[in-house]
Amino acid sequence: MKYKLAVLLGAIMCAGGVMVPKTAEALRIDIAIGDRPYYNHGPWYWNNGVRWYWIPGHWSWRRHHRVWIQGHYAPR
What is the pLDDT of residues 9-26, one digit of tens each? Predict the structure, then answer.
């Protein structure tokens, strides 16, 4: 009886050890902050004799709600 119990506990511990990496992998979270997908020329660039500057994103009030305004390029 003790032998069967020891084998059963050993099998449960081995199964638990195999399952831990899969559950840990399923709980992975990636967080990206900023306007980098739109920021492709750097802080400024020239286009047809006009120097365009990057204006970073910011929070603003619109109709009594805070909204995120995406960053964009604008001429000086």
Answer: 888 877 766 555 555 566
